[in-house]
Amino acid sequence: MSSSFGQVFRIHTYGESHGGGVGVIIDGCPARVPLTEAEIQRELDRRRPGQSEIVTPRKEADTAEILSGLHDGITLGTPISILVRNTDQRPGSYDEMAVKYRPSHADYTYDAKYGIRAPSGGGRASARETIGRVAAAAVARQVLDQIHPGIEILAWVKTIQHLEAKVDPSTVTAADIESNIVRTGDPEMVEPMIEHIKTIRSQGNSVGGVVECVIRNCPAGLGEPIFDKLEADLAKAMLSLPATKGFEIGSGFAGTLLTGAEHNDPFRNIDGKIRTTSNRSGGVQGGISNGEDIVFRVAFKPTATIMTSQETVTNQGENTELQGKGRHDACVLPRAVPIVEAMATLVLTDHLLRQRATSL
Amino acid sequence: MSSSFGQVFRIHTYGESHGGGVGVIIDGCPARVPLTEAEIQRELDRRRPGQSEIVTPRKEADTAEILSGLHDGITLGTPISILVRNTDQRPGSYDEMAVKYRPSHADYTYDAKYGIRAPSGGGRASARETIGRVAAAAVARQVLDQIHPGIEILAWVKTIQHLEAKVDPSTVTAADIESNIVRTGDPEMVEPMIEHIKTIRSQGNSVGGVVECVIRNCPAGLGEPIFDKLEADLAKAMLSLPATKGFEIGSGFAGTLLTGAEHNDPFRNIDGKIRTTSNRSGGVQGGISNGEDIVFRVAFKPTATIMTSQETVTNQGENTELQGKGRHDACVLPRAVPIVEAMATLVLTDHLLRQRATSL
Amino acid sequence: MSSSFGQVFRIHTYGESHGGGVGVIIDGCPARVPLTEAEIQRELDRRRPGQSEIVTPRKEADTAEILSGLHDGITLGTPISILVRNTDQRPGSYDEMAVKYRPSHADYTYDAKYGIRAPSGGGRASARETIGRVAAAAVARQVLDQIHPGIEILAWVKTIQHLEAKVDPSTVTAADIESNIVRTGDPEMVEPMIEHIKTIRSQGNSVGGVVECVIRNCPAGLGEPIFDKLEADLAKAMLSLPATKGFEIGSGFAGTLLTGAEHNDPFRNIDGKIRTTSNRSGGVQGGISNGEDIVFRVAFKPTATIMTSQETVTNQGENTELQGKGRHDACVLPRAVPIVEAMATLVLTDHLLRQRATSL
Amino acid sequence: MSSSFGQVFRIHTYGESHGGGVGVIIDGCPARVPLTEAEIQRELDRRRPGQSEIVTPRKEADTAEILSGLHDGITLGTPISILVRNTDQRPGSYDEMAVKYRPSHADYTYDAKYGIRAPSGGGRASARETIGRVAAAAVARQVLDQIHPGIEILAWVKTIQHLEAKVDPSTVTAADIESNIVRTGDPEMVEPMIEHIKTIRSQGNSVGGVVECVIRNCPAGLGEPIFDKLEADLAKAMLSLPATKGFEIGSGFAGTLLTGAEHNDPFRNIDGKIRTTSNRSGGVQGGISNGEDIVFRVAFKPTATIMTSQETVTNQGENTELQGKGRHDACVLPRAVPIVEAMATLVLTDHLLRQRATSL
C-alpha cells in the first residue's frame, strides 16, 4: 500500500467503501490559512453520488468532519484530519461478489496481491476512496488562494464515447461547466451527452470518455526536473485515479503526426512578456511550467460494472457467470470532473510549495 | 530539483551534457547479484549517439565506470555509483543558444525557474541525462534475473509520424527489434521508416512517433494502491522522459470509444490458471498487475531542434530568429526504445522489491 | 510539520489535545495479520492518564476505534486508521496559557514557527499526541508476532532523579515491570520511587529520569547503513518524544571513559553461534544488529508544568508571572515506559520489513 | 542500504574505502549560490588523515572534483556531484581481516546482513564514508551564508577519556578550536590531551571522548514536529556517524537530576526580544528552535582498532585471535570535530529550506 501523495503538501488517505469511513490527513499545509468545513463540503457535493439524474442514485451524504489542524477557522500548520463516515452500506448486495470476480474490477488483483480483500463495495479500490483526495484539494485551493490567488483549475467532459465537445481551454468558465449536469463546457453537446448516457444506462451498459483540464495563470518555473517534472507528476496523479487508461499533455498523441517545424512553439515578446504564439507544449517545457495554459486530457474507460451477464471465475478458479446489479454510474465522467480538478490542484499546490523551499 | 526515482530500488542521477560527466547512484540494490560493466555498457551502446546512419552522428563513447558497490563482480548491497565522463564537448557550438531561447526546448523554463542555466548542450535538460537511467536499469535487469528470471521487457517503434508498424506484443522478440536500426518490430515498415527519417532530416526538419512496450511474464500482484498504482508509476516514469507528451495503457484513449460490455475483460480458467480472454486492461487492474501482458504506449513529440530558421526571443526578451545547427537526431524514436525499456525495468524492479517487503 | 515515521511500516499521526481527536494511519502493514481493538486498547491503557495514584488524575478514556484496513479481525494490507476521540476537555483551564508562555513548554516556539497555536492543552505539542504512536505500535507488535514471534521489547524506569534501579536487561520480565505502578524492574526501588514522586508532587514540583529499554532475540542483520543505522533510527525515535533530552546505546557516554582494549566486545563461538562475550556495543555494530541484546537509555527531563509561580513573558513580550495549575504528571516516567517500547517496536518492525525487501 | 539524508537539501553518498572512490550527490541545493572546490577542499583537509602528529599517518589527499551542478562558480540548482578518488589503497594489509572479524567493527554484521562484504579497509563501514558528508556540508555552508549569514556552527573536543575541557559554548571561536591539533577550545587542556593520546597510542591502545557542538544565531522556528523535531534529526545525524554511542541536548542526562523548578528556563524580555535566562533546553523546545544557542554533545567510543591481540572468530565461526596492525587513529576525536559540524550544518540547512516551503 502506498496511500501518500505529494512531497511538501502531502496527503495520506484511508478507508474502504463499507468500513467505518474514508478520510485523509493533510501534512504540510501552511499555518494561518482560512478554512471552513463548508469549503470542503462544496467540493464533496460535486463528487457525490445522487447529485443528478445521470449519476448513480446511491445516497451518500458524504459529510466531512475536520478532526484536527484547525483553530477558529484558521489552519494551525499541524496535520489536518478529515473524516467522512460511511452510511449507505448494503453489504448484502455484495454477497455474490465476495465469491465471483467482477470483470475489469480489482477483485482478482487485490486477492492476488494481499491474499484477502474487503468483499463489499470494492473495498479500498472503490471510487469512494477519492473523497479524501477531493477534501484535501479543497484545502489546497485555500492555500493557492493565499499564495497565488489568480490560478484557475478547470476540468470538463471533453468526450463521452464518440460525442466530442468543443471547448476553448483559454476561455471556458466554471459557470459554463457547472451549468449542466454532464459538466461539459459545450452547450451544444449537453443534451446529446445526457441522452446518450441515459440510453446506455437503459441498456444496462456503460460508456467512458475523456476529461480535459486547464490550469490558467500558472506562474512559470513550477516542476522539478528530472523525475518530478510537472507533467510527470500530473500523469501519475491522473493514472492513480480509478478507471483511467491514458494521459496526454498539450499536443499529446496527435502531436506525433506533426513535424518539428509544425510543432514547435515560437517565442515572442507580447506586451513585454515572453510568450509562445502557439501552445503545443501544453504549458510545460522540460518539465517546468512556461506560464502558458497547462492543458491535459485523461481517458476514462467505460464503467466496469454493467447490468448484463458476464463470463468470469470464482475465487476458486471455477468458470461461472456474473449478473451485474446495484446502483452504479453508467458513465463516471460527470463525477470525474471535480476529481481531475482535485488531483491537478494537489499537484500544483505541492509544486508551488516545493519551489518556495529552494528559491533564494 | 528532484533527481531520485523509486522507493526501494532507488536511483539518483546527476550531470549536465557538457560538464564533468553524467551518472547515477543506485541505492537499494540487493547484495550478491552478479554484475559486470559489460552488461551496463551493452545497454548504453543501444542508447548511444552515432550508432547508426539515422541517429545523430555525435561521437559519445559513453563508457561506464563503476565506482562503488561491487566486489569481484558481485554487488555488495551498498550504493552502486556509475560514472560516464563527458568527452565530445563543443561549447563553441552553443554560443548563440546562450542568448536565444530555442523554441520548445527547456532553455526559457530553466531560466524562469533557476535564474541560471548551463548554456551549452541543454545542460541538465539534455537527453544525455538518460544515461544514468539506462545504466541503472541494466543493474535492475540483473536483479530481475535473480528473483524473476522470466520477466521480459521489450519496447519498439510503433509509429513514426503517420507510419504505423504492425507488431504483436505477445510474440515480438528482442531479435526482431534489434534486427533493424529503426527498432520497429514490423519488417514491412523498416525501410519506409528509415526512408522517412532520412527525407525529413534532409529537409532540416524532424518527426516524432509512438513507442510501444510490453512486459511479459510479470507476476500478478505488483503495484501499490492507491497512489503508486503500477500504471501511475509507469506513467510518471515515461512522462519524466524528455520529449514525451502522452502515455496510455491497454485500450488507452481508443478504449473510450467502446462500451463497458465491449471493453471488459472476461475471466476464464485456462489451463488451471485465472486468465482474461482479452486484455483491454493492459495487464493492470485496480493498479495491480493481473498476470497478463502489460502493454503501454508513449508519445514522443518531433525533435525540437530543427535546422531551419525559427522565431524566438533572447533572454532579454527581444524578438529575434534562431538558425538551428549542430548534430541532432531528426527522430529520437530508435534511441528512445532502450530508454523506455529502462524506465519500465526500473519501475518493475522497484515494485517487485516493494512487494517482498510486506508479504508474509 | 512532519507527522510521518517509518519507511515501509509507515505511520502518520494527527490531532491536538483539545480538538476532535487524535489518531494515526498505518500504511504498509502486511495483509492477513490478526488484529483486534482489544490489543490496541491494552497498550493505550498502559499509557493512559489516571491509571494509578502517581500519574495525572485527568480522566481520558482513550478508546480506540479502527476505521479502516481491517476485515473480520484480519488486516487487509490497506491503511489502518485508528481514531481516539477527545473527551475530557476543559478549555477554560487554559485561558491564561493562551496569553502567557509556559516556561520550557512549546508555546513560544509554536508561535514563532507557525504564527498561531492551539492555545489549550498544549495543542499538537501535548503528550496526548503519543496515543497514535502507541496504537500503531500495538499493530506493529502483531506483525512481529507473525514474522519473528520471539522478539521481546521491554522498557522500565531506570532512574527517577537520583534514585537508580538495578535491573538486568537480559532477564527482566514484563511481569516484573508491570507488577508495580512506577514500572521499574527493581523491587527494592518501587517504594522509594513512589514516595519520591509523591513528595515532589506535594511540593508542586516535578522530576525526570531515565528509561532503559532492551530488545531481545533480535535477529542479526537489521539496520540500514549509512544514515538509517539502527541506533540512528532509535535515537531519532526517542528524541521525537516529548521531554526527552538524551539517548545512548550500549556503553553510551560512560563508554568514553574506557580504553579500546577495555571496550571492545570479543567474538566467541558459543554453542555453535557467533556471539560476543561482552555487550558494550549494545547489540548494534556498524549500524546493524549483531544478535545480542539491544540496550539503550533515554533521558526525560522533569515535567515542565509545575504548580509554583514562574517568571515568563506574554505573547506580546511583556514580563509577567505564571502560576501553574491543572492536573499534570509530577513525573512522566511511569507513563513513558510504554511509549518508549512503542517507538522501539515501530523502528524494529520497519527495519524487519525493509530487510525483507532487498534480501534475495 | 539507505545512503540518503535530508528532505529538501538532500544528500546521497556512496563509496567503499578501497574501491574507485567515495562521493556524494547533493539534490535540492538552491541555484545561484557561489561555490568553489576550494571551499569544499578546506573542510576535507580538516577531516583528512595525516594532518597532524596525533592522527593516523595514512596518506589520503582526498581531492574533491565537482562533476556537475556548477557553472562558472555558481550553482545551477541541479544535482551537485562531488567525487573523491581513492588512492592510498593497500588491500594487502587487510588479508587477515577478510577472514577474521575485527571485534567491535562492522565486519560480522555486514556479513550477517548482506552475505558479503568488501573485505579491505572496512568497505562501506569505513570512516572514509564521511568524506561525502563533509563535502556536502561545505556546500550547505555556502547556502547558509546566502540565506542566514550569521549562523555559526562550531564543535570542539569536550573530553578525551577522563580529561575534560572547560569551554563556554556562547563565546568559543573557530580560531580557538583550530589553534590546536586536538581541536579543543580550552588552552589548558591542549597539552594534557595531546600527551594522553600519544601515551595511549604508544601502548597500542585507543581512547574515545565527547564532542560538544553549538549552533549560534539560529533563528527561532526551525524544526518540524512531530517526528522531525530539530533534536530528533540532530540525534539521528550524530548516531549515524561511525563510533558514536550517545547524544544529548541541553541539560541532557544530567538534567534528570534536577527538579522541574530548577530545570525550567524562565522567559524574559531582554532588549525587546523574548529570551530565556537559562538554557537547559539547549535551544530547542517542543522540537523547534527558540533562538537560544543550540548545544549538544556526542559520545564517541574508543577506536575499535587496537594494536594488541584480541579474541575473535573467523567468518566460519572458529575461535581465533587477531593481532591489530595498520595505520589508525588512536583517538578519532580531533578528526570527528569537523564531521560533527558537517552533520549539524546539513540538518540546519535542510530545516531552513523546509521552513521556507510552508511559510506564507
UniProtKB/TrEMBL annotation, chains A, B, C, D:
UniProt keyword Cell wall biogenesis/degradation, yes or no: no
Enzyme class: lyase
Domain of life: Bacteria
GO biological process: amino acid biosynthetic process; aromatic amino acid family biosynthetic process; chorismate biosynthetic process
EC number(s) per entry: 4.2.3.5
GO cellular-component term (any): cytosol
Pathway: Metabolic intermediate biosynthesis; chorismate biosynthesis; chorismate from D-erythrose 4-phosphate and phosphoenolpyruvate: step 7/7
Co-factor: note: Reduced FMN (FMNH(2)).
Annotated source species: Luteolibacter pohnpeiensis
HAMAP family per UniProt: Chorismate_synth
Protein family per UniProt: Belongs to the chorismate synthase family.
Described purpose of this protein according to its UniProt entry: This reaction introduces a second double bond into the aromatic ring system.
Subunit structure: Homotetramer.
UniProt key word Lyase: yes
Cofactors named for this entry: FMNH2
Binding positions for NADP(+) per the UniProt entry: R47
Protein's name according to its UniProt entry: Chorismate synthase
Residues annotated for FMN binding in this entry: R124, A125, S126, G286, K301, P302, T303, A304, T305, R327
Keywords: Amino-acid biosynthesis, Aromatic amino acid biosynthesis, FAD, Flavoprotein, FMN, Lyase, NADP
Catalysed reaction, written as an equation: 5-O-(1-carboxyvinyl)-3-phosphoshikimate = chorismate + phosphate
InterPro entries, A to Z: Chorismate_synth, Chorismate_synth_AroC_sf, Chorismate_synthase_CS
Single GO MF descriptor: chorismate synthase activity
